Amino acid sequence: MSKISIALLALLLSAGAATAQTPPAPVAPAAPVAPSLPVVTPAGDVIDTLKASGQFSTFLKAADLVGLTAFVKGLPSVTVLAPADPAFAQLPAGEVDRLLAQANRAELQKLVLRHLINARVPFETFKGAVTSAPTLGGEGVELNGDQPPTIGGAPVIQADVMATNGVVHVLGRVIPAPAPAPAS
C-alpha cells in the first residue's frame, strides 16, 4: 500500500471511530397524526388510481353504493379528498357498517360528496395558507396548507396524486360532517 493510501485509510478509520463514539443529537419524536401508507401513484383517472392503490376499498364501496363512481370518472376536473381504509377504521365501532346500510344511503352520499371538489386543487394553491373550497355536497371544506397540512381537519398523508381527470389528496381521517349551526 502506498503512504497516501495508508494515511487515507487511517484518517477514515479515525473519523469513523470518532463518529461511533459521539452519540447522535436527540430528536423529538414526531407526533403520530396518521397511519403510514404506501405511496399512491397515478393509474389513469381518479377512480382508477384509487382502485389500483388497493388502499381505498371502503371509500370506493361507498361511492359505488350511492351511484357516484361513474359520475366522478366522468368529471373533467375533480379533487378527491380520499380517506384511506385505516381512516375509516378510526370511526367508532359499527359506524362503517351503519353508514353502508341501505337505510343510510342519503347520509353515505353526503359523506362521499364531502370528499369531492369540482375543480383541480393541487396542494400548491393552498400551501402555507388556510382557505376553503366548496365540496360537491355543498359544504365548505377547510384547506390548511400549514405544517402539518390538513383538509377538513384530517391530516394529509400524501398530496398531489395527479390523475388524468384530477388530483387525489390522501387523508388519514374521514372528514366529519360540519357541526350544526347554533339555534338563534
Portion in helices:
25-40%
Strands, total number:
7
Beta-strand percentage? 15-25%
What oligomerization state is this entry in?
A: single chain
Alpha-carbon Rg, integer: 23 Å
> Low-confidence segments, ≥5 residues, pLDDT <50?
1-34
Task: Count up the helices.
Answer: 7
Strand order of the largest sheet: 2-1-7-6-5-4-3
Structural class: alpha+beta
**Distance separating the two termini:** 88 Å
Using the alpha-carbon principal axes, give the shape.
globular
What is the N-to-C succession of helices and strands? HHHHEHHHEEEEEE
Task: Summarize the structure in words.
The chain is α+β, with helices and mostly antiparallel strands and 184 residues long. It is 34% helix and 20% strand. The protein has seven helices and seven strands; from the N terminus they run ααααβαααββββββ. It has a seven-stranded mixed beta sheet. β4 and β5 (150-151) form a beta hairpin. α3 crosses α7. It is globular, with a radius of gyration of 23 Å.
What's the gist of this structure?
The chain has 184 residues and is α+β, with helices and mostly antiparallel strands. 34% of the residues lie in helices and 20% in strands. Helix 3 crosses helix 7 (105-113).
What's the SSE blueprint?
Elements: H1 3-21, H2 46-53, H3 57-65, H4 69-74, E1 78-83, H5 85-89, H6 95-100, H7 105-113, E2 116-117, E3 130-134, E4 140-144, E5 150-151, E6 154-163, E7 166-171
Parallel strand pairs: 1-7
Antiparallel strand pairs: 1-2, 3-4, 4-5, 5-6, 6-7
Helix pairs in contact: 3-7
